[in-house]
């Protein structure tokens, strides 16, 4: 059984149908990339998986069907954690306070310090800036903080939405090294990324979504060589 299975997923914003029957599967331990243009439905897909938006169809995670009475906060407690597009950190809170907010789903009274140390080991710059306000950090540091905050919820399935957006290439390289490290720790990752070349280089498998529908899927290295993908997303 797949770790995550999406079947005939449909979702709309009013009269606009954003997803038109999406089917995809993610195996435990994989990095799976979702590639597509702006407005294709990528973020909507993650929003549905996270339980933040209504949909029809079926989403099954680790053998359990999501939706219904399984609310977004319960989905987080099950180990499905999203790092949203645009970071969405708490800009007036310190780095340390942001990380502690990520642990809200923990049992009451549980000490978050071991996981904070784990985050600081992965992102040393956050430790250097632990008492600074989140809003004072650079874009790359804010992305690290958003990922670190997600780690505080102890994800088993991490949903990353455009982690490289607006970042300098050298910072993007750091972020993607961190993504690979998280995967090596055993975290399964679904990656939405406009930098299709980097996404396909990082992922095991990939899906291409266009106008709310999956148009191609397969091993990431094969899709990177696909002529149609190269022309549409890889600059030739």
From TrEMBL:
Any coiled-coil regions, as ranges: none
Determine if Membrane is one of this entry's keywords: no
Q: Which GO terms describe its biological process?
A: L-amino acid transport
The protein's matches in InterPro entries, at most eight in alphabetical order, are given as: AAA+_ATPase (IPR003593), ABC_branched_ATPase_LivF/BraG (IPR030660), ABC_transporter-like_ATP-bd (IPR003439), ABC_transporter-like_CS (IPR017871), BCAA_Transport_ATP-bd_LivF (IPR052156), P-loop_NTPase (IPR027417)
Q: Which of UniProt's keywords are assigned here?
A: Amino-acid transport, ATP-binding, Nucleotide-binding, Transport
Name all ABC transporter domain ranges. 4-236
User: What SMART domains does the annotation carry?
Assistant: AAA
**What domain of life is recorded for the organism?**
Bacteria
GO MF term set: ATP binding; ATP hydrolysis activity; branched-chain amino acid transmembrane transporter activity
Per its UniProt record, what SUPFAM superfamilies does this chain match?
P-loop containing nucleoside triphosphate hydrolases
The yes or no answer to whether the keyword Ribosomal protein is present is no
The record ties this protein, via PANTHER family, to: HIGH-AFFINITY BRANCHED-CHAIN AMINO ACID TRANSPORT ATP-BINDING PROTEIN LIVF
Belongs to which family? Belongs to the ABC transporter superfamily.
Q: What is this protein called?
A: ABC transporter ATP-binding protein
Organism of this sequence: Candidatus Copromonas faecavium (nom. illeg.)
